[in-house]
Amino acid sequence: MRWIVGLVINAAILLLIAYVFDGFELSGIGAALIASLLLTIVNAIVKPILVVLTLPITILTLGLFLFVVSALTLLLTAALMGDAFVINGFGMALLASILIALIQTFVVKPLRK
C-alpha cells in the first residue's frame, strides 16, 4: 500500500514540476502515474548500475554527481514514455531531478514518519 502511495506522490511531484516549468511536459494525470511507475523501475534497475560506474566522479564531486545520474534516469523515463512525457534538454532534467530530491526529502519523508 505504501508503494502505491509513493507512486501517487511522485506523480503529483511530476505534475507540479510540469505545471511550473515550460520545458517539462506531461500529457495528463495518467501519463504522470505511468511516468512515476517507469521512473521507479528505472531507478531500481538502471540507477544502481550507473552509480557503480560513476563512483569515482561521484566521490570526487562529494556526491553531487548523483543529481546527474538522477537526471539521466529521468531522461531515460521520458524517452521510454514518448510524446506523453517530454523534457526539453539535460538542464531541465537536472533541475527537475534536484527539485524531486528536495521535495521528497523535505515534504514526503517527514509525512511518512
From TrEMBL:
Q: Which Pfam families match?
A: Phage_holin_4_2
**UniProt-recorded name of the protein:** Phage holin family protein
Cross-referenced InterPro entries: Phage_holin_4_2 (IPR007165)
Q: List where the protein spans the membrane.
A: 5-21, 27-46, 53-79, 85-108
Keyword Hydrolase (UniProt) = no
Q: Which UniProt keywords apply?
A: Membrane, Transmembrane, Transmembrane helix
Which branch of life, at top level? Answer: Bacteria
